[in-house]
Amino acid sequence: MLYPVIWQNNSVSLIDQTRLPNEYTVVQIHRSEDMAQAIKTMIVRGAPAIGVAAAYGIYLGAREIENQNHHEFLERLEKVADLLRSTRPTAVNLFWAISRMMKTAYETLGTVTEITQKLWETAEAIHAEDLQTCHAIGDHGLAALPPTPQKLTILTHCNAGALATAGYGTALGVVRSAWKSGRLERVFADETRPRLQGAKLTAWECVQEGIPVTVITDSMAAHCMQRGLIHAVVVGADRIAANGDTANKIGTYSVAIAAQAHHIPFFVAAPLSTVDFSLPDGSKIPIEERHPGEIYQVGDTILTPGAVDFYNPAFDVTPAELITAIITENGAFPPDKLVSFKY
């Protein structure tokens, strides 16, 4: 199993996902500032994995603060939290994990050393809980998949696998559970322009575990559905509004529309920590825009003529009415039932 975030040797080890699939490299993170940069540059990516990494980032920041005055320590720690919050605006797990870590800092009685130790324990707990959550999502997702045919072909978009979590994955957790139970025929992986997380990361994960995978361009998904090649769609999420509207990697909305047109079930797999109950619907979800170089350039090759404009949103929002069910660690539910978990 792949583990993209590991605490070892008194530092955090991250699989550098910007170098996959051609080069497997592990980056050692010793400072909170380096963790913020790793999140921003997508060395570590995927909402749950970002949350785990940010939790360790808060601990690293606490460890860097030499001031033993309780009030001044918390002031410095707030600056670390602000730095980490500024890295990726859409992934709500980032903010959830930072909030939980800061709550620990404020509620722990004792010395700065004792608070720092408690922060490490909380980061470890967030890490372990996410791994357990992914396995539960995989099991609930398996139960939610259509009963026929016995061997399913599943389409996914972007990468919501072990690399995007503490391990096992959300959408690919469902795929893994289906594969282990003998219910999976093949994965169709959208390449996921412009950063190609499907072609680079999802395909790489599947190859590592011997799961049959076919990579297609994003524009081929509807065609494959029309030809009867797809039995279900399972994707991840970076933020889910209270009504079930879901933000995921750009292109997900198009896949959902195509799935509805072809009467194919469309599932979103995500932990409940991804649900932002403060947002009534998806129109309030902030959408990160990234550098246009992701569109006009691949390696050293420029793809477009000069003097053109670019628009590069990293995410889009799929309306709840297009989603068959949201698969969580507590089960698979229609989007409008998520509100029952608010309290």
Feature tags:
343 residues; alpha/beta; 7-stranded mixed β-sheet; 4-stranded mixed β-sheet; 10 helices; globular
Note the main sheet: 7 strands, mixed
- Classify the beta-strand content into a percent band: 15-25%
Number of helices: 10
Radius of gyration: 20 Å
**Structure class:** alpha/beta
The best one-word shape is globular
Helix content: 25-40%
The beta-strand count equals 16
Explain the overall architecture:
The structure is a single chain. By secondary structure, the protein is of the alpha/beta class. It is 39% helix and 18% strand. The protein has a 7-stranded mixed sheet with strand order 6-5-4-7-10-15-16, with helices on both faces. The protein has a 4-stranded mixed sheet with strand order 11-8-9-14, with helices on one face. The relative contact order is 0.12.
List the helices and strands and how they pair.
Blueprint: E1 5-8, E2 11-15, E3 26-29, H1 32-40, H2 47-64, H3 70-85, H4 92-107, H5 112-144, E4 152-156, H6 171-180, E5 184-190, H7 197-209, E6 213-216, H8 221-226, E7 232-235, E8 239-241, E9 246-249, H9 252-261, E10 266-269, E11 275-276, H10 293-296, E12 297-298, E13 301-302, E14 315-318, E15 325-328, E16 331-333
Parallel strand pairs: 4-5, 4-7, 5-6, 7-10, 8-11, 10-15
Antiparallel strand pairs: 1-2, 2-3, 8-9, 9-14, 12-13, 15-16
Quick summary:
This protein is α/β, with parallel strands linked by helices and 343 residues long. It is 39% helix and 18% strand. The longest helix is centred in the middle third of the chain and has 33 residues, at 112-144.
